[in-house]
Amino acid sequence: MSAGPSAAAGSPAGALRHVLSHLVTPLLMCVGMGLAYLGAFHAPEPHDLRVDVVGSGPSAQVLAQTLQDKGDGALSVRTVADRATAAEHLRTQDSYGAYIPGRAPELLVASASSDTSATAVEKVFTQVAAGQGAPLKVTDTAPTADGDPTGQGIFFLLVAVSIGSYASVAVIGGAGAVLRLRVRAALALGASLVVSAIGAVFAGPLFGLVDHGLAGLWAMAWLYSAGILLIGVGLHTFLKRWTTLGVMVLFVMLNFTSSGGIFRPELQPGFFGALHSFWNGAGFVEGVRGHVYFGGHALGGNLLVLSLWFVAGLVLTGLAGLAEARRRTAAALPAVPPAAPSAGPARSSAEEEEEEMEEAVGV
Q1: Which of 100, 199, 245, 355 is 20 to 30 A (C-alpha) from 159?
Q2: Could you tell me which residues come within 8 angstroms of residue 223 by beta carbon, excluding any fewer than 6 positions away?
Q3: Strand pairing category for 98-100 and 137-140
Q4: In a 3-state reduction of DSSP, which class is residue 98?
Q5: Pairing state of beta strands 49-54 and 75-80?
Q6: Average pLDDT value for residue range 278-291
Q7: How far is CA 52 from CA 61, 241, 253, in A?
């Protein structure tokens, strides 16, 4: 007796169910991207944005307190004794603007730290200077390279390296599913070398995003990319066709939005600011900024962040190896008599792998 048209292999009803089940992934990506990007970027407002007022007299103290009170939590204002101290705070990213009052008021900023933060600070003190009836002179103590006038080129480099990394995860996990895990891990490390080299070419010879420190940038790009690839290869053992969604959540939705490449934590909701302290994208962006523009300030902490994500990738890959070894052992046991044939269409692992690669969409 026939099983009926709805159960037949390749039937329209079966194909429709198959398509609908796979539409879940892009729809979840849509929801996740909207929540992450709009939640992080749609209404940037400063909160506790650290700025300095240069001077030690009563007038400087009154100005600082007035700005603090009027800011209603937007600014964190303190006074410093002199211009040199204010410049040092900018170098160490301990403040994002320093106002020097007087007949010719001056504002010190460091646009390499964050162009959007510098713009927010400039907007505040332009109004202060206008209230005093004087034009404001703005001095950039740490300008970006000529090839990166907005200071956001490092963020877009992060995007390129990330996409090259997590898309490679889908290829290695899908097309390389029949390979032993150690081979897939070696492919991941090799792919990270290529992806990071491409990133270094973008940053240096091609677009001039940095004018020095290219070797250090490449090393951080490799460490960042290798961490993503190893984590992705390890996750694939457990998540299978859901790996693409998993790595997009980790390395796009939560990663790009918390990196500080567009808006620093002081201009974002607290959730993304908290992620900024330990997420790998922030480690890369802030590490490159510190290396290229601020004499290596805080570079060790950012390298530690990248290294810990790399180690997490090694650990996850090791756990995946143990899981796959157990599966091989179980498969080698005497076979259980086959169950009754399923009413649905059989699907080969090759078809599943092909679908997984097709789901590896960019942003």
Answers
A1: 355
A2: 303, 306, 307, 310
A3: unpaired
A4: strand
A5: parallel
A6: 98
A7: 11, 51, 34
